[in-house]
Amino acid sequence: MKVRFYGAAGEVTGSCHEVHANGKTLLLDCGMIQGSDEDEKRNELPFPFEAARIDAVVLSHAHIDHCGRLPLLIHRGYTGPIYTQAATADLLKILLEDAASLALMDAERDNKHRRDGHQNHQPLFTKADVAKVMSHVKTMPYDQAREILPGISVTLRDAGHILGSACVTLEAEGRTLLFSGDIGPKGTPILRDPAVQHKADLVLIESTYGGRLHRTREDTIAELGEIFEQAERDGGNVLIPAFAVGRSQELLYWFAKYYEQWNLKRWKIFLDSPMAVKVVEVMDGHEDLFDEDAKKVWQGKINPFRLPNLHFTPEVSQSQEINQIKHGAIIIAGSGMCTGGRIRHHLRNSLGNKKHHVVFVGYQAQGTLGRRLVDGAKIVRIFNEEVHVNARLHTIGGLSAHADQAGLIDWYSSIDNQPPVVLVHGEDDARNAMKEVMQEKFGNQVSLATPGMEMDV
Ligand code: ZN
User: How many whole angstroms from 392 Cα to the centroid of ligand 1?
Assistant: First the structure.
């Protein structure tokens, strides 16, 4: 068995690895590259492989940087199945459709602003392409091996990262390849902890936070409560750019848990993301995947998805009405890195005023508006307008959906035989830090994936 690395090899987006075994070829993930406009242009390039030649795809989870080029894969000739967990399949449709809408809006805006008369910016894919992707999806439960191609079997195990997320074990030719997908931290609300792994001959491990340790969740949550207090005193609103899948729902979980303590009834809370609202519906349908604590919370007095002052605002007009509220609103909106979505409208309206607060609760990739804000930019461009940054910005790291260095090491330690490791899905600083720690602790072989690199399993 051989594995070749195409994406998320030296960066945190565009996850895509190719595996050859038993004369067959399969892809682990087919993700979109996200970041600056220049980075995202790379999504249009031809794949470094022939799509029609791939026999199967296994998808670790529904985040766009893992699934976002599946529509292109099919458009360019792929005809095989896409194996994934059932909740991932539900989320996949929502995320890809959202990406298709964003792509269409970007293309339209770009065409409108072009002065050279060429209006030929086509969206990367459309909702019709998404429907085609969905017709290729075959769902699998966790923890059951399935022979997806002759002599190649796949097992998905809970990765605890987002609902339906999986670590993928591939067995063929008497060898075992383990692909971590994205691994969640232990103790993530709602989700179960990452499942214990067993044995492997080679492990591909994500390393988004391979170079750091998160604050504890308790500290983070306390900080969030303090920000609400401060924002109340300042008479402003609180904007929370949040990923629609997972983070938005996790915030609601914390709001339910600390409803009294934070006196949240003073606020109007908006889930201003049509996608996050759809994800709430999906999560409601997959309570079987919740951890024990969440099952109890869902049976308790305050259901996180039905807080008395929580407003879902799927319609554009409802979102625009929020702009009239000058204080007392907590607005959760996408996208999480401020690269698109409604949060950009809210930021344009609010960043200039120091009474408002913006709370970053997730990873901000290089090249994104979120990263520029977190890095302290005093002026940013939003919708071709210069916006001065006077609002109070906060970054709270402890709510990550990715395990930190200790979490990754802990996950790896659960593998019986401490096999060689290839680090993927991380910027180089993070991967180098991770490599150093792993070699010191385990004395094992640790490589950093580079685009096009090939390894025997
Ligand atoms: Zn992910």
Answer: 28
**How many residues belong to the chain?**
457
Residue 234 CA from chain centroid, whole number:
32
Report the separation in Å between the CA atom of 398 and the middle of ligand 1, taken as the mean of its atom positions.
16
In CATH, which of 3.40.50.300, 3.40.50.10890, 3.30.559.10, 2.40.440.10 is domain 217-399?
3.40.50.10890
Average pLDDT, rounded, for the chain? 94
What is the per-residue pLDDT across 128-165, written as a single tens digit (0 to 9) for each?
A: 999 999 999 999 999 999 999 999 999 999 999 999 99
AA identity, residue 280: V
Do 91 and 276 touch, CB atoms closer than 8 A?
no
Distance 166 CA to ligand 1 centre (A): 10
* DSSP one-letter string for 78-127: --S-EEEEHHHHHHHHHHHHHHHHHHHHHHHHHHHH-SSS------S--H
Cβ burial of 281 (10 Å; 0-12, 13-18, 19+) is exposed
For ion ligand 1, residues whose CB falls within 5 Å: 63, 182
With CA atoms as reference, report the closest residue to 156 among 148, 164, 165, 168: 168
Distance 238 CA to ligand 1 centre (A): 25
Superfamily of 2-212+401-456 according to CATH? Ribonuclease Z/Hydroxyacylglutathione hydrolase-like (3.60.15.10)
Segment (H or E) for 291: none
Evaluate if pTM is beyond 0.85. yes
Distance 114 CA to ligand 1 centre (A): 34
* C-alpha span between 247 and 224 (Å, rounded): 14
CA-to-CA distance for 392 and 396, rounded, in angstroms? 13
Q: Which two tokens stand for residue 332?
A: 């959760």
- Per-residue DSSP letter, 443: -
The partner residues of 90 in beta bridges, in order of sequence, read none
Instruction: Say how many Å lie between the CA of residue 182 and the centre of ligand 1.
Output: 5
CA of 61 to the centre of ligand 1 (A): 7
Residue the block writes with tokens 């306390």: 222
Q: From the CA of 388, how far away is ligand 1's center (Å)?
A: 32
Report pLDDT digits (tens) over 235-247.
999 999 998 999 9
Output the pLDDT for position 118: 67
Per-residue pLDDT reduced to its tens digit, 164-213? 999 999 999 999 999 999 999 999 999 999 999 889 999 999 999 999 99
Check if the beta carbon of residue 455 is closer than 8 Å to that of residue 3.
yes
Angstrom distance (rounded) from CA 341 to CA 241: 10
